[in-house]
C-alpha cells in the first residue's frame, strides 16, 4: 500500500532510471576524487571496475533508502507546508530532514559494507565522510525530485486544463444546440403563426419574449456564471412561450428571496430543468403540470409533479451537462431526487463575496 501510494506519486521506472544515473555519477565522482587526492589510489583497471561495481550497487541501494523517505516527505510538505505559503519554514525542515535521513542511511550502508569487508581506514572517519557525501547527494536528489514532480504536475495541470476547456466548449455547444432545437423552433413558430391571426398584440409580446430568450443565450453562452436575477428573468420569458402553447395546463409559482438575486449559477440551468419537466411529463387539462421555483437556504429548488409520458425517453444529457458546468465553478453538485410524487432538483447558489454568506 505504501509503495503503491508512492509510485502513484512518482512512477517506479522513472525513479529507477534517476537513481541508477545518480548512483553511477556519485561513484565516478568519489572514485576520481579519492584517487587523485591520494586518499585511496586505484591499483589498475580491474581494481577500478571492482570498486565501481560494488560502490554503484551500494549507492543504488542507499539511494532507494533515501528516495522513498524523500518522496514521502515531499508529499507531506506539499500538503502541510506548501511552497507558496510557508517557504522559509518548509526550506528549514526539508533541509534538516534531508540531512538527517542521509546520515542514518549512510551509517547503515557503511556498517553493512564494513561487515562484508573491513575498511583499512578508521571506521569513524569513513562514517563521517560517507555521511557528509550522503547528505550532499540527498540534497541533490531532493532537489531533482522536487523539480521532476513540479514539472510533471505542471504538465498534468496543463493537460487537465486543456481537457476541461475542450469539455466546456462541448458543453456550451450542447447547451446552444438545445436552445435552437428544431422542435422548439417549429412549435414556437406555429404558435406565433396562430397568434398573428387571432391576437396581434399577443403575437408581438410573443416575438419580444422569443427574442429575449435568444439574446440571453448569446449573451451568456460564453460565461461560466450568471446572476439568479437574470436567470429568473430568462425563465419567465421561457415559461411565457410555453404557457402560450399549453395555456392553464402549465402552471408555475415563484418564491425567491430578494437577498439571493445576486447569487450565481451556470447560465441556462433553469432552461434545462424546465425543458425536462415539460418534455417528459403529460401536460393537459386533466393532468396540469405544476412547477414550483423557490429558494431554501442557499439552494434554488425546482419541483414538478410527476406524470410521465409513455413515449418519452430520457438520455440524461442535459442533467449530465448541468453537473459538469457546476463542476467548473465549485465543489457542490446539484441534487436530483423524487419526493412524494414530485421530481425535485436543488441547485446550489454560489454567493458573491460581498454577500457575506
Automatic annotation (TrEMBL):
<keyword id="KW-0472">Membrane</keyword>
<keyword id="KW-1133">Transmembrane helix</keyword>
<feature type="transmembrane region" description="Helical">
    <location>
        <begin position="48"/>
        <end position="71"/>
    </location>
</feature>
<feature type="domain" description="Signal transduction histidine kinase internal region">
    <location>
        <begin position="172"/>
        <end position="249"/>
    </location>
</feature>
<dbReference type="InterPro" id="IPR010559">
    <property type="entry name" value="Sig_transdc_His_kin_internal"/>
</dbReference>
<dbReference type="GO" id="GO:0000155">
    <property type="term" value="F:phosphorelay sensor kinase activity"/>
</dbReference>
<feature type="transmembrane region" description="Helical">
    <location>
        <begin position="91"/>
        <end position="112"/>
    </location>
</feature>
<dbReference type="GO" id="GO:0016020">
    <property type="term" value="C:membrane"/>
</dbReference>
<feature type="transmembrane region" description="Helical">
    <location>
        <begin position="132"/>
        <end position="151"/>
    </location>
</feature>
<dbReference type="InterPro" id="IPR050640">
    <property type="entry name" value="Bact_2-comp_sensor_kinase"/>
</dbReference>
<protein>
    <recommendedName>
        <fullName>Signal transduction histidine kinase internal region domain-containing protein</fullName>
    </recommendedName>
</protein>
<feature type="transmembrane region" description="Helical">
    <location>
        <begin position="12"/>
        <end position="36"/>
    </location>
</feature>
<keyword id="KW-0812">Transmembrane</keyword>
<dbReference type="Pfam" id="PF06580">
    <property type="entry name" value="His_kinase"/>
</dbReference>
Amino acid at each position: 500500500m505504501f509503495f503503491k501510494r508512492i509510485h502513484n506519486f512518482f512512477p517506479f521506472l522513472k525513479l529507477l532510471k534517476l537513481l541508477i544515473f545518480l548512483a553511477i555519477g556519485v561513484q565516478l565522482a568519489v572514485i576520481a576524487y579519492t584517487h587523485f587526492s591520494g586518499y585511496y589510489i586505484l591499483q589498475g583497471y580491474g581494481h577500478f571496475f571492482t570498486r565501481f561495481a560494488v560502490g554503484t550497487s551500494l549507492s543504488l541501494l542507499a539511494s532507494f533508502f533515501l528516495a522513498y523517505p524523500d518522496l514521502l516527505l515531499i508529499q507531506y510538505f506539499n500538503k502541510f507546508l506548501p511552497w507558496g505559503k510557508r517557504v522559509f519554514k518548509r526550506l528549514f525542515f526539508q533541509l534538516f530532514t534531508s540531512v538527517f535521513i542521509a546520515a542514518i542511511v549512510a551509517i547503515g550502508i557503511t556498517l553493512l559494507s564494513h561487515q562484508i569487508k573491513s575498511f583499512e581506514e578508521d571506521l569513524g572517519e569513513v562514517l563521517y565522510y560517507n555521511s557528509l557525501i550522503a547528505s550532499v547527494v540527498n540534497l541533490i536528489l531532493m532537489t531533482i525530485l522536487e523539480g521532476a514532480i513540479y514539472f510533471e504536475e505542471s504538465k498534468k495541470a496543463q493537460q487537465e486544463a486543456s481537457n476541461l476547456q475542450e469539455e466546456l466548449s462541448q458543453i456550451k455547444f450542447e447547451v446552444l444546440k438545445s436552445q435552437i432545437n428544431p422542435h422548439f423552433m417549429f412549435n414556437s413558430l406555429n404558435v406565433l403563426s396562430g397568434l398573428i391571426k387571432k391576437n396581434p398584440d399577443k403575437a408581438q409580446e410573443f416575438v419580444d419574449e422569443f427574442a429575449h430568450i435568444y439574446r440571453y443565450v448569446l449573451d451568456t453562452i460564453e460565461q461560466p456564471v450568471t446572476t439568479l436575477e437574470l436567470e429568473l428573468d430568462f425563465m419567465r420569458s421561457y415559461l411565457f412561450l410555453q404557457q402560450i402553447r399549453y395555456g392553464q395546463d402549465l402552471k408555475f409559482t415563484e418564491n425567491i428571496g430578494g437577498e439571493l438575486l445576486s447569487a450565481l449559477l451556470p447560465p441556462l440551468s433553469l432552461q434545462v430543468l424546465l425543458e425536462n419537466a415539460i418534455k417528459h411529463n403529460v401536460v393537459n387539462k386533466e393532468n396540469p403540470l405544476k412547477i414550483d421555483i423557490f429558494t431554501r437556504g442557499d439552494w434554488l429548488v425546482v419541483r414538478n409533479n410527476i406524470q410521465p409520458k409513455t413515449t418519452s425517453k430520457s438520455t440524461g444529457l442535459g442533467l449530465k451537462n448541468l453537473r459538469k458546468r457546476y463542476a467548473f465553478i465549485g465543489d457542490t453538485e446539484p441534487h436530483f431526487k423524487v419526493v412524494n410524487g414530485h421530481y425535485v432538483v436543488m441547485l446550489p447558489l454560489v454567493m458573491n463575496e460581498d454577500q457575506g454568506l
